[in-house]
Design a protein that fits this description.
Elements (H helix, E strand, L loop, with lengths): L7 E5 L4 H12 L3 E6 L2 H13 L7 E5 L5 H15 L6 E4 L14 H27 L4 E6 L16 H24 L3 E8 L2 E2 L2 H8 L10 H13 L9 H17 L3 E2 H13 L4 E4 L1 H12 L7 H9 L8
Parallel strand pairs: 1-2, 1-4, 2-3, 4-5, 5-6, 6-9, 7-8
Length: 322
């Protein structure tokens, strides 16, 4: 799909981050875009920014939808069809995602399942809902966002990361399996899996909102104590610092994840769209993703040893995981 002009694109998680930048870039390239998100306010800002960067008759519509709810996804699909007065779509970007659900053994089950619900079932439900519309097009592309955690189920030693990783592995495997399925049954539709490294998005901030957590500055004494113990295990000298220092550090970490990333969300969106233009099914986003992919492939049995992160950081990547 060399050109997006006049195409109909669907983007989930369009309110912030890579979703927002995908909407902006697609609209600037002449595509009509429908986005969904759980935040109407965030989508309104995306819509404003996207409209400011386009010329001509390009439709950009917003739809409130929790992608982990199949009935909400089906309603979103029906709204997209009505908004564009069309019986097809050309592009589906399953981009919505959250973090959380770190430990399967000791963590909260509802948080684990909520994370898995958004990150895996959100992709599955949207693929189910929109696949007939992609097949009905003359040319289609389904682009599913996995992660480097779709081939490396870790963010470093001492930090369980099970729900997000399990979901992202599922997204990667599903997308790869679609390649042959589509070749057999709908050869005019392609599939691509996106595996970003550290991208400058608000996922760390937004995750807390979706999971019902309060602002870090409102953490309870018990939550502060848990965070303090975690930071001590990571080697930080926080024994005698005030509770508000811990609260501020947790809040700043989410901000730093967004603002100090090696790859911006806008850069990530362009890499993804270039991958689609060049008919690639495997799209690594960021130099850190490429290095991590190589390291895991070279020595998979060492990928979860404590010194793996040390070697990765020595290569200049994942510094915020220190």
């Amino acid at each position: 799909m060399k050109s997006f002009e006049g195409r109909i694109a669907v983007v989930t998680g369009g309110g912030t981050g890579m979703g927002r930048e995908l909407v902006r870039a697609l609209a600037a390239a002449g595509a009509h875009v429908s986005m969904c998100d759980v935040s109407a306010e965030n989508m309104a800002e995306t819509q404003r920014l996207a409209k400011a960067g386009i010329q001509g008759d390009v439709r950009i519509t917003t739809h409130v939808c929790d992608v982990s709810d199949e009935s909400a996804v089906n309603a979103f699909r029906d709204e997209v069809v009505a908004a564009h007065d069309a019986k097809h779509v050309n592009l589906l970007f399953n981009n919505a995602g959250i973090g959380g659900g770190g430990s399967f053994v000791a963590g909260d089950r509802s948080e684990w399942e909520r994370t898995f619900g958004v990150d895996w079932f959100g992709v599955y439900y949207c693929a189910r809902a929109f696949m007939p519309l992609l097949v009905a097009s003359d040319e289609g592309y389904i682009v599913n966002t996995s992660s480097v955690n779709g081939f490396w189920a870790s963010i470093g030693p001492g930090i369980p990361h099970t729900s997000y990783s399990a979901a992202k592995f599922a997204v990667k495997g599903f997308t790869e399996a679609l390649i042959n399925d589509l070749r057999e049954n709908a050869p005019h539709v392609k599939a691509a899996v996106v595996m970003p490294g550290h991208i400058g998005t608000s996922i760390a901030i937004n995750t807390g909102k979706v999971l019902g957590h309060h602002d870090p500055m409102e953490m309870t004494a018990e939550e502060v104590a848990q965070s303090r113990e975690f930071m001590k295990r990571r080697g930080f000298p926080v024994d005698n610092v005030p509770d508000d220092f811990i609260r501020a550090a947790i809040k700043q970490r989410g901000i730093d994840f967004r603002d100090k990333a090696p790859t911006t969300a806008a850069q990530a969106a362009e890499i993804i769209l270039d991958g689609v233009r060049n008919d690639r099914w495997r799209i690594l986003v960021g130099e850190d993703a490429k290095v991590l992919d190589r390291m895991v492939r070279e020595a998979p049995e060492l990928a979860y040893e404590p010194d793996f992160m040390t070697r990765l950081q020595a290569a200049g990547h994942m510094k915020l995981a220190e």
